[in-house]
Specification:
10-stranded mixed sheet, binds glutamic acid, 336 residues
């Protein structure tokens, strides 16, 4: 007999598996004389990759009308995506709101490159709680317990790696605090946890997602709260951080809601991309909004108004304002 949380887990796993297949199918289609639009996402087991696949699926459905062929690429994650947008190697990307802020302002990881004034926010998406998962036998129940443990900090270029560095600095820690530090990608980390190669993994990601589902079903592991004065200070001093919770009951053995902090996932582009192309993406998502929300369980709670009001620190792309005005969702143009 399955418990209701096991059934939920099976349902989520099925939806997530089907979605991954969808994203591949979109990429394999090939039609000549169309404009190719690339969307940078993240690792195969996160939310960004199936989300990019969901956006492309809706865009490609209207290809005969607008001539755009949308492709969602798996990438290293937020920081790498923002560099690719800046370099003109990618047309759109899903990125964390904290790294959108820093890329636009030329701060933190982007200080050396300076501000990317061509960066534009298209809309924000789901919340991404900073998520720590530990082996149940590791004795880790608080973030402080990670000291002297083996942890996966994530691959360079990922949002979680960059955000973890911010957290460590706020706490006055360095990577020397840990017994061992691995740099595995999100797609590799659940297995490393369950093989007992690391005691804990860290992922800034929407829920539910395949990576954490795997980490909590292939072995016994627990979500760890991330709270305390350093986190409060971060949330108070930075506009792009909020207190956040990971709902209980999404993963096997994790029934309680877990407090942490988080960011928003956002869709960004560059002023270099033709406005009409971006408009077609905005239209495809919002014209088919209920369907879009049903394409991944982490998107289920999206709200159109919040998507243009929160998480966007680069200027909002004019196409978003145009769509919202045309459809009467807002009365005045969104600020450029
Ligand atoms: N937030 C992660 C990053 O930017 C990716 C999360 C996901 O793939 O869903 O690197």
């Amino acid at each position: 007999m399955c418990s209701s949380s096991q059934l939920l887990g099976i349902f989520i796993a099925t939806v997530l598996t089907v979605l991954s297949g969808t994203a591949y199918a979109e990429q394999e289609q090939d039609i000549d004389n169309t404009r190719v639009l690339t969307i940078g996402t993240g690792s195969l087991t996160g939310v960004y990759y199936p989300l990019g696949g969901a956006v492309c699926r809706l865009v490609n459905r209207e290809r005969e009308r607008h001539g755009i062929r949308c492709l969602a690429d798996s990438t290293e994650g937020s920081v790498s995506n923002l560099n690719a947008i800046r370099a003109g190697e990618m047309d759109m990307a899903v990125v964390q709101s904290d790294w959108q802020y820093h890329a636009y302002h030329g701060s933190s990881q982007f200080e050396a490159q300076g501000p990317d004034q061509d960066l534009r926010a298209v809309f924000s998406l789901h919340s991404e709680p900073f998520t720590v998962v530990a082996r149940a036998d590791s004795g880790i129940t608080l973030f402080d317990d990670l000291k002297d443990k083996r942890i996966n900090v994530g691959n360079p270029g990922s949002g979680q790696r960059a955000t973890l560095e911010v957290v460590l600095e706020a706490m006055g820690w360095t990577l020397n605090e840990f017994a061992q530090v691995l740099e595995l990608s999100a797609a590799e980390q659940a297995q490393a946890l369950c093989d007992n190669t690391v005691d804990a993994i860290i992922f800034t990601v929407g829920h539910p997602n395949r990576s954490i589902l795997e980490a909590t079903t292939a072995c016994d592991s627990v979500l760890v709260p991330v709270t305390g004065p350093a986190i409060d200070e971060l949330v108070q001093s930075r506009t792009y951080y909020t207190h956040a919770t990971i709902p209980g009951g999404l993963y096997r053995g994790n029934v309680e809601e877990i407090p942490t902090f988080g960011v928003k996932a956002t869709l960004v582009t560059s002023t270099r991309i033709p406005e009409e192309t971006v408009y077609q993406v905005v239209k495809a998502v919002f014209d088919n909004f209920d369907e879009f929300r049903s394409l991944h369980p982490a998107l289920a709670d999206l709200d159109k108004q919040i998507m243009i009001q929160e998480g966007n620190s680069a200027p909002l792309h004019p196409s978003t304002g145009r769509y919202f005005l045309e459809t009467g969702i807002i009365d005045a143009p969104a600020p450029e």
